[in-house]
């Protein structure tokens, strides 16, 4: 089963892991930072990919740090977003991971998933308005690097959400704001997400279709978070 596009007027796409394979870049950067942290703190239980999917995936930067530390009972000072990457604070750790992410983006670049570009082309052809709703402050740079910025008149990213005081995923607020900015009624918009936190945000927002893209989170976890449909690739959604 796919979607009947005549039921919808617009699409709200997550970016990392949905349009571009950058969820993997985030994952690697988080693993490098958290693994070193646990070693430095003398914690024996290693950081795993499951930690990423359960606590970090899809959430705003410092929310992800906070959630993982809480899961291990580790308490560190909050610090502030201006903290240098060397600071042993929630913000400093988030910024430490960001330095690793930025370096990989700069050296390796990024290419959008071909199936995702095929869907963007088909929807643009039909005149369907599309927005990006990403927790990442790096979303504009990723969209530019992948050459797909032009599809999206609205880009609701982590920096915009912070400026506007919007709660991040799994809260639905950024999706609601993007639908409003795009001029699409909330009950006629599709959400497309690869993270359980993002799927949960779409479900909490009352959107009529929440598509989970399984890039590792697992079909069952996506369905339990509220996905109404799970696909492996966005080409499965082609009209
Ligand atoms: O640190 P950034 O670039 O603002 O990104 C925040 C989050 O953005 C999400 O899109 C990613 O799934 C997370 O892995 C990432 O932590």
TrEMBL record:
Its EC number is 5.4.2.6. One of its GO terms (molecular function) is hydrolase activity. InterPro entries: B-phosphoglucomutase_hydrolase, Beta-PGM-like, HAD-like_sf, HAD-SF_hydro_IA, HAD_sf, PGP-like_dom2. Its cofactor is Mg(2+). SUPFAM superfamilies: HAD-like. Keywords: Carbohydrate metabolism, Hydrolase, Isomerase, Magnesium, Metal-binding, Phosphoprotein. It catalyses: beta-D-glucose 1-phosphate = beta-D-glucose 6-phosphate. It comes from the Bacteria. Belongs to the HAD-like hydrolase superfamily. CbbY/CbbZ/Gph/YieH family. This is Beta-phosphoglucomutase.
């Amino acid at each position: 089963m796919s979607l009947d596009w005549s039921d919808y007027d617009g699409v709200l796409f997550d970016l990392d892991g949905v349009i571009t394979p950058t969820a993997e870049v985030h994952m690697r950067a988080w693993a490098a930072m958290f693994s070193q942290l646990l070693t430095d703190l003398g914690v024996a239980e290693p950081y795993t990919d499951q930690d990423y999917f359960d606590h970090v995936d899809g959430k705003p930067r410092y929310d992800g740090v906070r959630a993982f530390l809480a899961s291990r009972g580790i308490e560190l000072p909050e610090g502030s977003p201006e903290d240098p990457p060397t600071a042993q604070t929630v913000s400093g750790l988030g910024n430490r991971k960001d330095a690793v992410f930025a370096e990989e983006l700069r050296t390796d670049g990024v290419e959008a998933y071909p199936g995702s570009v095929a869907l963007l082309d088909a929807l643009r052809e039909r005149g369907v308005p599309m927005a990006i709703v990403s927790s990442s402050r790096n979303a504009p740079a990723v969209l530019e690097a992948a050459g797909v910025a032009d599809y999206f008149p609205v880009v609701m990213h982590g920096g915009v959400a912070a400026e506007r005081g919007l709660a991040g995923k799994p809260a639905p607020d950024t999706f609601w704001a993007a639908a409003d900015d795009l001029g699409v009624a909330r009950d006629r918009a599709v959400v497309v997400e690869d993270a359980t936190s993002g799927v949960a945000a779409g479900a909490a927002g009352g959107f009529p279709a929440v598509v989970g893209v399984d890039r590792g989170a697992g079909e069952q976890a996506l369905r339990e978070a509220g996905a109404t449909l799970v696909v492996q690739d966005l080409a499965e959604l082609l009209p």
